[in-house]
Each structure stands twice: as structure tokens, then as C-alpha cells.
Design brief:
mainly alpha; 2 helices; rod-shaped
């Protein structure tokens, strides 16, 4: 694949990874707030699990593209 295209994909993947980290942090803060207020966090924790899985995929994309660029 063309290096310029890979660099564009990398920039996009890095942006998604950064946004994902923010989403995970926001969800963790929300859960902490719900816990503090004595609310049920079951569904919020399910969302957090999904966000973490998605985040791992974003991070894997970044690593995969970086690997392609170093070939």
C-alpha cells in the first residue's frame, strides 16, 4: 500500500484511539459518580466493557499500521 495512504490511515487510527481513551475515561468517571450516589452501575459497566473492547481494537489498528509503515 502507498506510504501516504498508510500515514493517513495512521492519523485516523490515532485519532480514534485518542477519542476512545477519552470515552473510556468519561465512562469510568460516570461509574464512579453513580457508585458514590448509590446507583446501580450494571448497565454502565457493560457499556464500559464494550468501550474497552473497542479501544483495544483501535490500539491494535495503530500498531498494525505502524508495523506496515516500518516494513
Amino acid at each position: 500500500m502507498d506510504r501516504v495512504i498508510l500515514e493517513q490511515y495512521l492519523a485516523l487510527a490515532e485519532r480514534h484511539a485518542a477519542q476512545g481513551r477519552q470515552h473510556v475515561a468519561r465512562q469510568e468517571n460516570l461509574i464512579a459518580e453513580l457508585d458514590r450516589d448509590g446507583h446501580d452501575t450494571t448497565e454502565a459497566r457493560k457499556v464500559l466493557d464494550t468501550l474497552r473492547i473497542t479501544q483495544a481494537l483501535h490500539e491494535q489498528d495503530v500498531e498494525r499500521i505502524l508495523g506496515e509503515l516500518t516494513k
